Amino acid sequence: MSDLWFNGLEDLELVEGALRLCSQVDPSINATWVELQLEKMLDEAEQVLSRETNEKARFDALLRMFYQEWGFQGDYENYFSSENAFVEKVLQRKKGIPVSLGALLLYLGRKLGFPIEGVSFPTQFLLVVKWPDMKPDYVNPFNGEYVAKHTLLSWLKGAEGNAAMLKPEHLSIADTSTIIGRWLGVLKGALMREERYTQALECSNLALSLVPEDPYEIRDRGFIYQQLNCFQIARKDYEFFIEKCPNDPAADMLKLQLKSIDDEPVVLH
């Protein structure tokens, strides 16, 4: 693993940063194929959109291409699958989650000259198009539909309760590093659910290269090590979490885990 994988993320488009991340987790990914696919999609979009002169009509044409002609769609059936977080798989399957589909659309939109940005809304990743002298348009990248502010408020209330209020910070532009950090968490969670612990461990180590002593990340790494039968390393991670977060409810559970680890035979690695 390169400790410098995150250097220069801000200079990359979101999908390029995500591809770098995914290639760290799974070196077998064909990054060149991904880059060629993006280039091919951009060329095709440029040809189609050249027929439109109105900017909003051009953007609508891009949405139609992406979701109808190319057939990209949100993965309703297997939302939490790791395939929805690996860029290569999203391009192959034409299915994804808001952040992975949004990253593709954001890349195309920015390359085509649209004033489009990513928003890390509390419930999901959004896209915003800030037209000059007009109200911004918000797009749900899961299905390509425009989203009104009252809908965003209902999403927020569904997540945080009826007292929730839509605030400007909920709709602020997200930087690439922040989104990649969350993307990394999504990928790690998916791999852990799929019991792909070796790759999940790589995700955890990548996260710790960003925030070296995050006790919650170290706790998760301990769990992964335990699943990989690396019990003594897991013990150290659990003990670190208990020391740093003694009042967290998880600390008591981890103390029980430590007792079970004591009963395990020592495995040398």
From TrEMBL:
Keyword Coiled coil in record: yes
Q: Which domain of life is it from?
A: Bacteria
Please state every residue range assigned to the domain named Protein SirB1 N-terminal: 34-184
Coiled-coil blocks: 35-62
The alphabetized UniProt keywords are: Coiled coil
InterPro entries listed in its UniProt record: SirB1_N, TPR-like_helical_dom_sf
Among Pfam families, the record links this protein to: TPR_9, Transglut_core2
Keyword Transferase: yes or no?
no
Similarity comment text for this entry: Belongs to the UPF0162 family.
**Name of the molecule in the record:** UPF0162 protein
Upper classification of the source organism reads: Bacteria, Pseudomonadati, Pseudomonadota, Gammaproteobacteria, Vibrionales
